[in-house]
Amino acid sequence: MISISPKLGDLLVRTTQTPDLDTALWKVLSEYIDLKIAALSKTDMTLQEKWRMSFDEFSNRMRAGTLGKDSYSWKVEQDFWEWEQTTTLLKQYESLKTS
Q: What is the pTM of this model?
């Protein structure tokens, strides 16, 4: 069993305005997941608008060399790694939300 200090427990209950610690923790974690999903979705949309395609299409075109830009340039690589991380984390947080 995990224990937390009474001060932290009180802060959680008062901040979330919930009746007990268990409910407070669920609320904090749920809201955190919602915030992460919103931030990652915004990044995903920004990259979709920049490249005018989905990550899957971007990735496929990058591999095929039909992206229209040098697939190995620093800027393209940076977008690829950021976008891949974004889509991976977005799937992870969305699966946590549904479980």
A: 0.87
